Amino acid sequence: MRGWLPHLSRLASLGVGVLVLLLVSVWNPSGLYSSAQTRLWNAYQQWGTAINKHSPYVVVVQIDAESINELRKQKNGEDWPWSRQRYAELLEILFNQYDVGVVGLDMYMPDDRDIKGNQALLAISQQKPVVFAQAFDLENLPEDAFFSGHLSTGLAMTEPALSQVFPVANGYIGNNELLSSARCVGHITSIKNNEGMITQVNPFVRWQDHLFPMLALEMLRCYSNADKPYDFSFTEHANGWQLELRHLLGEGSTSPLVVDNEGKWRIPYLIHKDYIISIPAIDVLRGEVDSEYISRLKNGMVFLAGTAPGLGDQQATPLHNNVPGVSVHVQLLDWLLSNKSNSPSFSLDKGSWLLGFVGLVILYAMLMGGISASAVVTVTVLMIVGWLGFGFWVWLDYQWFLPIHPVMLFLFFLVFQIPVEWWIAQRAAGRLRHVFQDYLPAALVDHLVDDGRTDLLIPSRRNLTILFADIANFTQRAEYSTPEEIASLTQQILECLTLVVHKHGGTLDKYMGDAAMVFWNAPFNNEDHADKGVQAAIDMLAAISAFNQNLIQRDLLKGEPMLVRIGVHTGEVIVGDLGTRFRHAYTAIGDAVNVAARLQTLAREIKEPLVVSQQTVECLSQEYPLVSRGAIALKGRENRVAIYTLKPSE
């Protein structure tokens, strides 16, 4: 019996380990398993773009900072946001002068401004393949979901399985009533993982018993025949569900697309941002497109999208931390045009588990055969490296996402089975338990728990007063100042603002170029945090005024005086030491932060030095020279926000 004890221990360890891994992979507690798998797949995609320099079939006409600034400077120029008539002008040039095949608009237009422009856009879309965009709310609860504009008609669901797989939206941002009637409309809804990266997309989204295709699919349909409905089948597949889309790439063509059981498609990122062909919109408007790109435009597929950083569509992807959102649609459309299959006919999940189990059996056979533990460890490491290399090869050649189940099984073997072998060799039953009990002394744990500083850094829900301050006329000043002068001036202004922050006991969250974010009531409690925030804002304005006077006296002020626009809001957020193992910081996140930032933007738009929300005013214990301006609709928010500004000086 004693001779069998080591073997029974090994088999018991194997059974428990496999069971635990199976449960972890299915239940995915805290997202640990899927996060590890996603990070590996992200690395594959990064390495893949470094090896394969792939240039897409698609072209982006970008509304970048250069286009916005150049159009603003022209005689009879136009400031941002551009009119719908300007977009119509762009489309007419693209179709009539450059003979493009289809244009997808990576923007939605829910409001009715510029009626003539809307009519012009609709008229073009009735004659040419133009695809408008809409988005769905898949995250918020129905009572918190956003609603704006009107949705397109959508597709009637003809197969019951469609209603079981694709997600139901709780809200949407559509287009105005006129543009919602366009022939081609696709959704640009993204799915972000727990690190904020866009890694998946739903090819279709459900809303009130109708399906709505994503922008890339709709561009293919519109390019092929805008008046022809989708023709597809939807069947079970070894790796989820398979869409077979017919005639999208020409009459008689079939485009297979496999989604998981939640209707999600993992985006195959194959194109580095440097290889995406991007043409400034101003070049199109002037008819000055680079000659090497003209052939790519002819009968080509084109996205028209805002890419300037200030337009708010900068996204994180597995390839880049900060790129225009249109790059995601470029990846999707480019893949669909390749007409490859994104999944084999057999189950990658089951196949990976099977190969992992076979590898474990080999390792246990080596142990039972008397092979030394060091040799077994070496073979295990080689198996891990081999599977990782195999997964990368599969990605490079087929763009399949190979699960990491064998790697986790082999890591389990290294982490758990080797200690079990040591326990068997030592014949000291229970000693491993005592070693782990003594590994972290209770006194050390108590010390960490009782440490006040650590407690303050733990993310928690708190009510903060948040301030955003931004230099209003900084961009114009940069046009006639050297980079050294701009850098020096920025440093001086931020120091001036920071001195006020420190005076009022605020927490300086971060500098953002020529702007700053500050909050009160964390990490230390401030009962009068609203008063401190408003008084700090007023003192900042006074400090900037004094700063301007100092520059005038020293004859250093070039052009207009420096102006600061400030937004202040009070609300509940999560505050603490947030981030990842790569980078983290003490910061605040939540809707209240977004509102404060929107108020600062509003202050710039309405040319007010200070905009304070009603939530902050209601928390004030002292009187301040503020006057109500009523309730204002903030960009990206359904509910209006009541605001206050400084009383005009008498």
Task: Report what the structure shows.
By secondary structure, the protein is α/β, with parallel strands linked by helices. Helix 11 (348-368) runs parallel beside helix 13. 44% of the residues lie in helices and 22% in strands. The radius of gyration is 29 Å and the shape is globular. The strands form six sheets. Strands 1, 2, 3, 4, 6, 7, 16 and 17 form an eight-stranded mixed beta sheet that branches. Strands 20, 21, 22, 23, 24, 25, 26 and 27 form an eight-stranded mixed beta sheet that branches. Strand 18 (314-315) and strand 19 (323-324) form a beta hairpin. The N and C termini lie far apart (99 Å). The model is unreliable at 1-5 and 426-454 (pLDDT under 50). The protein contains 21 helices and 27 strands.
Tags for this model:
disordered N terminus, 8-stranded mixed beta sheet, 21 helices, globular, alpha/beta, 650 residues, single chain
What's the arrangement of secondary structure elements?
Elements: H1 5-27, H2 32-51, E1 58-63, H3 65-73, H4 84-96, E2 102-105, H5 115-127, E3 130-137, E4 147-148, E5 155-156, H6 160-165, E6 171-173, E7 185-187, E8 191-192, E9 198-201, E10 204-207, E11 210-213, H7 215-225, E12 232-237, E13 240-246, E14 254-259, E15 265-266, E16 277-280, H8 281-286, H9 291-297, E17 301-306, E18 314-315, E19 323-324, H10 326-338, H11 348-368, H12 373-398, H13 405-426, H14 431-439, H15 442-450, H16 452-457, E20 460-471, H17 474-479, H18 483-503, E21 507-512, E22 515-520, H19 529-553, E23 564-579, E24 584-589, H20 591-605, E25 610-613, H21 614-618, E26 626-632, E27 641-646
Parallel strand pairs: 1-16, 1-17, 2-3, 2-17, 3-7, 4-6, 23-25
Antiparallel strand pairs: 3-6, 5-11, 8-9, 9-15, 10-11, 12-13, 13-14, 18-19, 20-22, 20-23, 21-22, 23-24, 25-27, 26-27
Helix pairs in contact: 1-13, 2-12, 4-5, 7-10, 11-12, 11-13, 12-13, 18-19
